[in-house]
Amino acid sequence: MKYSVAIIGTRGIPASYSGFETSVQETATRFVQNNIKTTVFCRKNHYHEYPAAFNDVNLIYISSIKSKHLDTITNTLFSVVHLFLNRYDIIVVYGVGNAVYIPLLRLIGYPVIAVVDGADWDRQKWGNIAKWFLRISRWFAVKFSNFYVVDNEYLAQNYQTLFNKAPIYIPYGANLEFSNKIEMLSKFNVIKNKYVIFVGRFVKEKGIDFLINNYCQVDTDIKLVLVGDNDLDIEYVNYLKSLANDNVIFTGFLYGAEYETLLHNALFYVSCSFLEGTSPSLLSAMSLNGFALVSDIIENKEVLKSSCSTFKVGNSNDFIERLKYYLSNSEIIEKERANTKNIVQNYYTWDKITDQYIKLFNILINNKF
User: Fold this and answer.
1) Is the same domain home to 203 and 342?
2) What is the rounded CA–CA span in Å between residue 216 and residue 315?
3) Which of 286, 203, 18 is closest to 294 using CA atoms?
4) Paired strand residues for 54
5) In this structure, what CATH number is given to the domain that contains residue 95?
6) What secondary structure does DSSP assign to 150-191, as a single string?
7) HSE-CB for 328 with a 13 A CA cutoff
8) Mean pLDDT confidence for 126-153
């Protein structure tokens, strides 16, 4: 092996939660293919089985205090303790809140790459103290890391302006190859092109209540399939279910063939987010499906690169108008799919994303930071 990389701060792999975990899984397996010894630290309470490796990526299971505010930060703390006792060449720290530990890692000689998510401090789930902590953590990520990575160009500009230190822009990626087991559709009581789909965590900034409320006002036999959940906020999940009518289907979290098949065979993907970075679900929709109707926040428009369609964020009339149009004009959608998939091929393949991380690794190794 050329050198060793340890990745901390996420729930771990195999991915079964969010974009961070998917990014770790896709890049870590490719690091190994490039002869880089790779270890991913996993949150022990997130898994029921504890294999030692996944696709030749080493896995280490670390405990945590499972609560909304302490789960991540305690897991990363215990991971840092492990890093004091065991040696790796490079550390990749995911999550802006985990950046407070970077000075400790640098103190014992580790080169560190910080991967900061979107404007996490603006998420509705956090109270004022947590938001303050996350804002302070940004400074730690920028000040003490060797490189800090952001997932969209708009956020990169904000960080550059605020801290006068250039970030590294590396977006999320998407897979061009996928499973399409159409017989699985019957499990969810849907038919190809007779449903639209949302994929994501059930958190307030995703605008899922907005989506359900407005979709239920449209007179259509096309279903709305919601793929996702939130086991840390059951009250909000139950609230969303209370808004739905018989045209809305909740699947829970899905991964692998079921997720890919549902996304590919939908008429299109829909999202009403108020806050995003580079949305992994949107990228997957662009790759696996080819058409998306999403809110016109700048991060979404940046990802789409003039493909697909947007509506005015939070504007029910505009959303319903565009929704009705695309539900009734599937031929417009079909014409757009090839263009959208070309954008993914040119900008967002996981191979391209992995290569950008490896370039950073090589700089760190060669310069002996």
Assistant:
1) yes
2) 15
3) 286
4) 57
5) 3.40.50.2000
6) ESSHHHHHHHHHHHSSPPEE----B-S-----GGGGGGGT--
7) 9
8) 81
Q: Are residues 193 and 306 in the same domain?
A: yes
In this structure, what DSSP letter does residue 349 have? B
pLDDT tens per residue, range 55-111: 999 999 999 887 767 888 899 999 999 999 999 999 999 988 899 999 999 999 999
- Looking at the chain, the whole-number percentage of residues with pLDDT higher than 70 is 94
Does residue 207 contact residue 272 with C-beta atoms inside 8 Å? yes
Is the same domain home to 252 and 280?
A: yes
What total of structural domains would you count in the chain? 2
Q: At what angle do helices 256-265 and 280-288 cross, to 10 degrees?
A: 70
DSSP code per residue over 232-253:
T-HHHHHHHHHH--TTEEEEE-
Element (H, E) at 304: helix 298-304
Cis before 14? omega within 30? yes
* DSSP H/E element including 148: strand 147-150
Q: How far apart are CA 97 and CA 88, in angstroms?
A: 22
b/e per residue 243-254 (b: at least 16 CB within 10 A): ebeebbbbbebb
pLDDT at 338 over 80: yes
Contact 46, 61 (CB under 8 A): no
Helix orientation angle between 330-347 and 316-328, rounded to the nearest 10 degrees: 100
70: left (phi over 0), alpha (psi -120 to 50) or beta: alpha
117 and 45: one domain? yes
Q: What is the pLDDT of residue 133?
A: 66
CB 191 within 8 A of CB 183: no
Q: How far apart are CA 16 and CA 21, in angstroms?
A: 7
Segments forming the whole domain that contains residue 143: 4-173+350-367
Q: At what angle do helices 280-288 and 19-33 cross, to 10 degrees?
A: 70
Count Cα neighbours of 52 within 13 Å in the Cβ-side half-sphere: 0
